[in-house]
Design goal:
By secondary structure, the chain is an alpha/beta fold. It folds into 2 domains: 127 residues, Rossmann fold (3-Layer(aba) Sandwich); 66 residues, no CATH class. Helix content is 32%, strand content 25%. Strands 6-7-8-3-9-10 form a 6-stranded mixed sheet, with helices on both faces. The chain has a 4-stranded antiparallel sheet with strand order 2-1-4-5, with helices on one face. Helix 6 links the parallel strand 7 and strand 8. Helix 3 packs across helix 4 and helix 4 packs across helix 5. The longest helix is centred in the C-terminal third of the chain and has 16 residues. The chain is globular and about 50 Å long. The C terminus is likely disordered.
Amino acid sequence: MIEFNNVTKVYGNGTEALKDVNLKIDKGEFVFVIGPSGAGKSTFIKLLLREETPTKGTIEVNGYNLNKIKRRHIPQFRRSLGVVFQDFRLIPNMTVYDNVAFALRVTNVANRSIRQRVPYILNLVGLASKARNYPSELSGGEQQRVALARALVNNPSLLIADEPTGNIDPEMSLEIVELLNEINKCGTTIVMVTHAHNLVSRFDRRVITINHGNIVSDGSEWGSFYER
């Protein structure tokens, strides 16, 4: 599903963001990725999305070799992923329904399929009653649920959540992670990057800690390192 082999990323200004990272995430896992600001988490996400390429090493995601993938195939690769960001990235002049449907329309899915799929996904994230509302009429937690619905509507095998609780209150944050947990139970692989260590501690999941570009722990026992 995800495999990093001896991956190093050095930017043009000399910053070594990741250093000789080896990592494997199997299909069906739910993995938290944590670490302080500047640890390398953002670079990890950019490499996963093929927004950046490694300086050294190889990366495979969803069966794609990201070192060798041709530029014209990158959109196809990204359609195999669902991505949720901290800032929601909803289209303000579209309703909830249309924000979610948009992800299908851009891939030329038939209208009949859209009419079936979108209500199903909105119901899954608890927003069936908000289909005709606009983003400005929703709470932060509801907007993140719309973003999550949009990420799920193409039925991706891998969902990447980049600080998905960063702009919502603690109660809603817990609801979002619980929802991700339920989605994972249905077979979707989840990789969630977060600063919210209090949330991480509430779920018995694999935790990868990155610091200074290195993976410094990988497993369920992360607190003792992180608090040093």
